[in-house]
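Repro:
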Amino acid sequence: MPRLLRLSTCSVFALGIASGPAFADLTAQQVWDGLNSAMQGFGYSVSATETAAADGLDVTDVVMRVTDPEENSTVSVQMEAIDLVENDDGSVSMVFPRSMPIRIEAAPEDEDAVNMTLDYANDGLEIVVSGDPGAMTYRYSANQLAVSLTELIVNGEELGREAARFDFVLDDVSGSTTTETSDGTTITQDVQTRAASYDLAFNDPESEDAALLSGSMQALSVASAATLPEGFDPSDAQSLMSGGFSASGTLGYEDGQSQFAATDDSGTTSGTTRTGAVQLEFDMDTTAVRYDVSATDQAVTLSGPDMPVPVDVSMAESSFNIRLPIAESETPQDMAFGLNLRGFEMSDLLWNIFDPGAALPRDPATIALDLTGKVTPSVNLFDPTAMARIEATGQPPGELNSLTLNDLTVEAAGAKLEGSGSFTFDNDDLQTFGGFPRPTGNVDLTINGANTLIDKLIGMGLLTSEDAMGARMMMSMFAVPGEGADSLKSSLTINEQGHVLANGMRIQ
């Protein structure tokens, strides 16, 4: 799958997902040389026959191939011809065949040998290249782009579409890509599609096992920018990290939906998913990586033989973010982690399993966590030798310097916990807290509705009076009355001597 993903990226580039005005006259030979060089830069070998034409250049019998000796695999793209036509305005039009087969051959050790052919088809594809050899800009549009599985052979046995199928379709595609070559390569792109759909299925001819997944999304868009260092090795991540690599991008879509099913000896498990708007952002360079994913209006249904009742849940909003330094450093670097699950609801059928009398409030639930801090990495996470040493010795890959809890919110069944605070860490003191750097700082917590929730759990039989008494004693040790009738608050502090205090009272 990683090879297929990389192939898809390179194939999209080869199709010239791009736009921009003409800056100078380009020749067909320059455009072909640029494409050839780019594919070789991604690790592909390229063979073709070049023939000069009155209007430009005809390139025939094109084969682009990449191999992976470790996986004993080969991926190749074949095209009968690419016509490059020089236009009067100094741009060059690229004409690709309507169908381009992608062949994948893999025989990893101790695994099944697989030969696969995918058909990369297009309808109404138009590509125009402008600029100059050092900064080419491509403009492209297509009524449809599609990838379909046309042949699958496993251990010498061919499987038809009734046994395995895969189709991925993009409708009404338009976009732009610009490539600049100067001390490396910079690629920027912006692509939009009206809709995307996928359909895949597998049926094991020797058993009852089967699976299928299909779905669609609207207004799919991708924008990215990447700088690739000169002479980098696409199979060696460390060569990217040491050469000024950077990448950033966004991916978004709306109105996503899918259906899935899996069958085995016990029966069929099936379900559906639905999303409103989805957005993914990422940034990466030689020092740090950041991901930020968010979604709205999510819903999942699930049923199967191992489930007492069908699952039916929804979420108004969810998000996840992380920032992580990846390069060795002598100074503290920023880090962050966030998780938001807001407006979680489930069907009354699920509620009734443990609360048939509706004793608990069924308001939407929320879990939110927002952490930021500083860490000092002691290794480069893309250095395999250093990471192997860390794994062998069990030593941490760096030092934790500080943490700030910007927000903690847990709200469910009528109770709500909130918190915030910050700590610094002394990495020279690993004795006070049993091998963990000694923290200094405090966190403030409030909880509303805890006693009411405990009373309801006792009435439902989910909590015994003895267990409830222990819980209330713990709360009385760490908390004091808050603002309301059923409100508690606590300020937990760790001082420079390593003492732990709750509301000013030392407890350790």
